[in-house]
Amino acid sequence: MLDFPRWKTIGISIILLLGILFSIPSFVPEKTFNSLPSIAQTKVNLGLDLAGGSHLLLEADIADLRKTQLANMEKTVRAAMRGERGPDDDIGIGELRVASNQISFLVRDQTQLDEARDRLFNETQGAGLTGQRDWNINIVDVTRIVLTPTNAGQTQAIAHAMDTARDIIDRRVNALGTREPTIIRQGNDRIVVQVPGLQDPAALKELIGKTARLEFRMVDANADPNEAAAGRVPVGSEIVPYAEGEGNGAAFEVLRRQVMISGEQLIDAKQSYDPQSNQPVVSIRFDSGGSNTFAKVTAQSVGKRFAMVLDGKVLSAPSINEPILGGSAQISGSFSVASANALAISLRSGALPVKMAVVEERTVTPELGADSIRKGAIAGIIATISVLTLMLVVYGRFGVYACIGLVFNVFLIIAIMAAFNATLTLPGIAGFVLTIGAAVDANVLINERIREELARGRKVFQAVELGYSEASRAIFDANVTNVIAASLMFWFGSGPIKGFAVVLTIGIVTSVFTAVTVTRMFVAHWLRTKRPTSINI
Q1: What is each CA distance from 228 to 83, 247, 319, 497, in whole angstroms?
Q2: What is the C-alpha to C-alpha distance for residues 56 and 34, in angstroms, rounded to an integer?
Q3: Kindly report the CA angle at 286 between 319 and 334, in degrees rounded to 5?
Q4: pTM (2 decimals)?
Q5: Which residues of 158-265 form beta strands (DSSP E)?
Q6: What's the pLDDT tens digit per position in 172-208?
Q7: What is the DSSP string of 25-44?
Q8: Could you tell me which residues come within 8 angstroms of residue 437 by beta carbon, excluding any fewer than 6 positions away?
């Protein structure tokens, strides 16, 4: 016990000093925090219930998802009918019809009907191991194949789309510079978004709600404008309206249904400026496959027009004056710097697989958050003072060491949370207060064990040594069970439950360190210096 190595004393002292230094930024005002060096700009973030912010409940448009599902299957059918061994392996089909939640097409050569069905059979196999299919394949009128989605396929598509939407929303929200948003699924078709500290919920709603489905499609040069105005367009084409403020007076364009290249092949998008007009634009860059496709199509279509379509609205429809090589392009329109940057974020994060509508919005004001902090702080102060008073009265000098360890414990918890950029919520404050009791509990076990050893007639040094060593096993066992419980809460919980589990876990680790190691260092130094023959504990 007396042989407490100098290197260990120095190491523990450095840890405690770092804990104090890294916890200080969490207590300073925002203006002071921003003036600190970048290495010191780490602090504990406050959750929605403490700092205020926005709460949104989003609901998926299932009808839009089914429309997307049909469009994807249409592409799959076209690809399946193209042979892998070249044009000689193609299966000739008539125009695909997409209507009434089904896809149908005519197989021109009846002898190829079974081959066409077999190819589709492989493409529509469900992802699970139950043998369920995503699509039903039926033959109607001898040569027409009809595909309809199965219930299992639609359920799986909804689940996959909602998981993807949650991940994309998370990337978009974090790209705004916010910290620790809570984004979780609720039910089959809803997502809860909570962003603490965000002062502009309208911008958040606009960013989240933007589907950002980017497509490049050819303009149908054969379409008659008068016929199109009456709603009659050539087979394989459709009318697509211009976005608000675009088109230079034109209301729509007639575009080919087939997508030349889509936003899924983007690898980067960022806000920049047009070198000629100096207006904000969005510069985009495609992957290798998209670059090759873009170059090939534009080389074959010099003199023709193509349209950039965002979320079903035409942004612009320029002419192709020369092949566009290099895989880069720019999207121009009536953009401000903020809207161009928001579009770039949406494109970088990927297109939402389904449209999301805000069905509930709540705003927590900072005043309510301040009230929660005040009440939580009062509870914490009362609990801390009560515990400290009890330890001082009951254990004297050893109670003083326990109180000092408890103060260091608070600094270490805050420092570790700041280092991990963690968020403190109201349940987190509850976990914080709980760790104070856990820290003192360890010292109670140690001190009571020392008392027992002294009552058995042990010498002071031997009693203290046995008190720490024997109590440490019980402390370790007790805290392992707490960590297991906290881990389960973190794994299966969400939002505030996770916040409580994080604070509790950090507090358990730091409380064991301060209650056992730090107080032992103080006791060892006192015993080595004073060498008392008796102690009052």
Answers
A1: 35, 16, 20, 57
A2: 29
A3: 50
A4: 0.55
A5: 182-186, 190-196, 214-218, 237-241, 252-256, 261-262
A6: 776 655 456 778 888 888 998 888 777 667 777 776 7
A7: GGTS-HHHHHTS-GGG---P
A8: 383, 387
